[in-house]
Amino acid sequence: MKKTYHLCLSAGNETLFRDEEDYNRGFNSLALALYKTNSTGLVESFQSTHFHLVVQSENPADMMYAMRQSYSKYFNRRYQRSGRLGEKHHFQLEISGLHHHLAAMTYVLRNALHHGLVPIPYAYPHCTVNAIFRKEMGKIHIEKELNQNSFYRFVGRKAEWPSHYRMNDKGLFLRESVLDIVQVENMYATPRAFNYYMSRKSGEEWEKEQEKDNIGASPIRLEDIEQGINGQTKEKMLIYESGRSDYRKISDIDLCHEIDRNIIPKYGKASVYHLSRTEKEQIGEFLFRTFRIGEAQIRRCLAF
Residues 177-184: what's their mean pLDDT? Predict the structure, then answer.
């Protein structure tokens, strides 16, 4: 019998996704793992340093293993890297009850907001948020789609997927064809209620609401969803939730682009993973002087 789980994996001291192609491949790896393990995806959010999932599965560990194996092979091959990608163990929390589901899904969908990347959840592209109530919220747009014979270029030649999966011309499986969006919409009930959850403040009201489930489980809190993510405190996340962040600062994906496309070719190296310690120190000093960013961001984007 399938149960619902919140799953999270942290990158540790590097980035999981360095550009748009990586983000697309990450979601595609999830899509393939869901099919391979007969699991159901509800919502997800991918960031450079970690990702969150809410899935229904009989064996979530198998689902995560399939996803990690698929993506790690791609990442290691692309960047000529070896070894495990991401921390050894993923975070796993079983979820029961409607309001517990709503709390977990909402925190995942608002993940980018809580990390100060966007002013509102809908501004973040690597997430399920814009696939929910698309028609009702005026987000229907026609995408160019690939023939299934072309899918292999973006998922590997040995990949298997169900016939209802669709893919856009950027090589990304369409979220509405992979995830059980109808189930998610039924839990939120209406577009207005969904929009309210995307903008409401975190706090005790959420915890009291979850008591209505009467299942004896502890309420799901923001700090529970984000535990294990380096450098992220509850206080900082609540500040970001209020919209107080500098969204003009350079993001990890932009910084990785600068490193991979403009800097590494000057060193004649295949990828950031082939740089020496001295070379990384030189590049780090240049990035600090140029962008005035913190050491932690420089180190993870240089895999240092």
Answer: 98
The residue written with tokens 């092979």 in the block is 73
Which of 210, 241, 272 is the last residue before a domain boundary?
241
Q: Is the pLDDT of residue 247 over 80?
A: no
CA distance 240 to 115: 7
Strand ranges inside 194-274, DSSP E? none
- 88 within some domain: yes
Distance set, CA 34 to CA 15, 64, 65, 148 (Å): 23, 9, 11, 18
CA distance to 93, 96, 212, 225, per residue, from 18 (Å): 27, 34, 42, 23
Q: Does 246 fall in a domain?
A: no
SS3 label, residue 176: helix
What's the rounded Cα separation, in Å, for the pair 32 and 20? 18
Which DSSP category does 194 fall into?
H
Residue 276: give the domain boundaries. Answer: 252-301
What is the separation, in whole angstroms, between the first and last Cα of the chain? 43
- At 268 the three-state DSSP class reads coil
Of the candidates 241, 262, 282, which is a domain's last residue? 241
CB 255 within 8 A of CB 293: yes
Instruction: Say if CB 277 and CB 265 are below 8 A apart.
Output: no
H or E stretch covering 91: strand 91-95
Residue 79 sits in the same domain as residue 227: yes
Question: Does 225 map to a domain?
Answer: yes
Q: Give 15-29 pLDDT, tens digit per residue.
A: 999 999 999 999 999
Task: Please give the tally of structural domains in the chain.
Answer: 2
Q: Helix axis angle, 60-79 relative to 20-36, nearest 10°? A: 150
pTM of the model: 0.95
Q: What is the pLDDT of residue 140?
A: 84
How many CA atoms are closer than 13 Å to the CA of 38, on its beta-carbon side? 5
CA distance 82 to 260: 18
Q: What is the CATH number of the domain that holds 169?
A: 3.30.70.1290
